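Entry 14. Ran structure prediction on the chain below.
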Amino acid sequence: MASTYDVVIVGGGIAGLSLASALAGKCTVALVEAEQQLAYHTSSRSARQLIPSYGPPVVQELTVRTLELIAADDAGQSRPVLSPRSFLLIGDDETVRAEASGEMRLISHDEALGLCPALKPESFSAAGLDTGSFGCDAPALLERHRARAAAAGVDIVTGARVHSAQRLGSGWEVGAGQEGFSAGVLVNAAGAWADELAVLSGVEKIGLQPYRRTAAIVGVGHPLPEGSPMVAAADDSFYFRKEGGDVLISPSEHVASPAEDARPRPGDVERLISRLNSLTTLGIGTVRTAWTGLRTEAADGVPVVGFDAEARGFYWLAGQGGYGFQTSSGIAELAAAQILAGPNGRDAQSAGHAGGVGQDSGAGPVSRTADALAATRWSIRH
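Output, structure tokens:
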């Protein structure tokens, strides 16, 4: 017999966990994760930086909201998630001006060198600074969402890969691992596997593409000082930041990949080390560890959040790209409200339990943000 819930979330990364946390106590929820541990894939391989000036306008808006929500949660916590860490963009004048947006302001060459003395003066000619950027304790945020969800009765099941999903009557029947689940709403938070889950569920896929992004922690001869900003090339060819006495580096590659447990490719980290040693005085030596995550994107580069147009009760929470952590709380807030209100915008207060969540009723207003993220939007459906 299948266990019955209002909502089943497939995917235990930052997207699924933050939504489970937002829905906790408001309806019955199960979260199922294919791996034996939560946040095994991309969510455990984050750059751990929330940057309000990074991404298209709707992403910047969601980042600001996410920072507000996390900061409110941090108040009084023994382990805060956020820590101030500015974001420094460097390159030539044309590229920096083109990429600087939101809360970023242009600064002088000398100001940039003062913020990051490790940069060689000839390595860049222009810079932008986002002082509203924050470092993110990703494990702490993930655990906060998990604990909040579990405390409110969310059933979290790991090692349960979905092998069947179909719409029957007024809800969804899902087989995952050795268990069965029944729910009015099925949330697709499967990351790089989101399109695969859609096809398995009999839902038209939307063309999500995973891309590789490698990073490494390296030992350096000259550590960055405390308070150093994260530094990124305006042409998106590298970034680096302080990681204790070491430095985290990334070649910022954007290479299409199948959905897989990605690993670094030979030469990627080594080539970046050679380049950074020519651009900085860091003196990079030993590679402590390296990893590769997958940033899954829709055709227009904007997350996909909302009910499917054709498959009733099928909710997309996918395509976060490189913005997963920095938009997570803002997206979860929006998604929870939509799921509780149902596909046609019923007031969340009347949604109820046992099949009430996600059912059709009277139309309601749709926000500009929801329109920009909708799974029905023209820019990904054509």
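The chain is about 25% helix and 30% strand. Will compare against last week's run tomorrow.
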